[in-house]
Write a structure and sequence with these properties.
The chain is mostly helical. It is built from three helices and two strands, in the order ββααα.
Amino acid sequence: MEHMPGMDGMSPPTNQMHDSSQQHVMSHMTFFWGKNAEILFSGWPGTRTGMYVLALIFVFVLSFLVEWLSNCRWIRSNSGKGSGSVSCGLVRTLLHGTRILVAYVVMLAVMSFNVGVLIVAVAGHVIGFFFFGSGIFKKSGDDFTPPMANC
């Protein structure tokens, strides 16, 4: 290997500030088990087990919500009316934007690389799909038509 000028005995750069209030935060780049993780916000859930469980429940509910938003039929296009009204299009767009926002928040939580977060995110999607997307719970005569359903 060729000698590179200026690289003799150099160590990686270190943080020159030695403030006692500064905490060392390690960002994982591989999956790991454990409750000491940062999920979505700096310092959250911290090192307390109860807060970690709360964070897992939060991620589960968000992924469940994504499936509900993906499969709810509050606004259906009415094939007899052409393209539909502007208000229906705006409501559909708002629902789509909300679904995408929540899905990205779940994705960012999974990017904490905590295996527990990954498991509850997948479980939320699976259980949400089971309830809302699989069609198991839909009765043949159950045609509830909410307001603005046929725009």
